[in-house]
Specification:
The complex is a heterodimer of chains A (116) and B (112).
Chain A (H helix, E strand, L loop, with lengths): L4 E3 L2 E4 L5 E6 L6 E8 L3 E9 L2 E5 L6 E5 L5 E5 L8 E8 L11 E2 L3 E5 L1
Parallel strand pairs in A: 2-11
Antiparallel strand pairs in A: 1-3, 3-8, 4-5, 4-9, 5-6, 7-8, 9-10, 9-11
Chain B lengths: L2 E5 L2 E5 L4 E8 L6 E6 L5 E7 L5 E3 L5 E5 L4 E6 L8 E9 L3 E4 L3 E6 L1
The chains are: A mainly beta (116), B mainly beta (112).
Amino acid sequence: EAGVTQSPTHLIKTRGQQATLRCSPISGHTSVYWYQQALGLGLQFLLWYDEGEERNRGNFPPRFSGRQFPNYSSELNVNALELEDSALYLCASSLGTAFAWGNTIYFGEGSWLTVV
Amino acid sequence: AQSVTQLGSHVSVSEGALVLLRCNYSSSVPPYLFWYVQYPNQGLQLLLKYTTGATLVKGINGFEAEFKKSETSFHLTKPSAHMSDAAEYFCAVRRGANNLFFGTGTRLTVIP
């Protein structure tokens, strides 16, 4: 069974541009999460989507946005890129109720975004 | 809100020695606790988790962790380190209905 898949693996953008990152959850998973792993800042929660709706967001500005499609895949958009947006962006998925019945959040391998 | 603190951003052990990575949690409700491992240039992989029941949890690759409520700890151990264990390890706690709060990570170096 395929795990969480993310694309692209690496992305280089110029400051001020927009970046779009994509994620396909594990088959059957309806919840998708986005995390940012920036150097020196650890893993920071960005967004949670479930059944096509944004359910929660972390402490990030509105230029970080995303959406979830009917097939539960998701994309993360970062507008007006800043140098400090350079990070590994991790997508994860779970069954809707992540912590019920032992369900767990599973992570993809991430997309490296470099802003120059 | 639920949180975790990992003690020691870097830990070095000799190959064959005991691995001990420390994690303390703060939670006003019974916590769900997790350990994830991140190998270089890869995403996070679940090592083990504690939700309810047995306080000693066994995970993959020979790792285990013990939930100690009296000490608010969930330390990760492995009796004998292997070179392939070199990675970054993250402790995490369930926060809210459907979210994880991660510790700052501990980088494990295994010395041959």
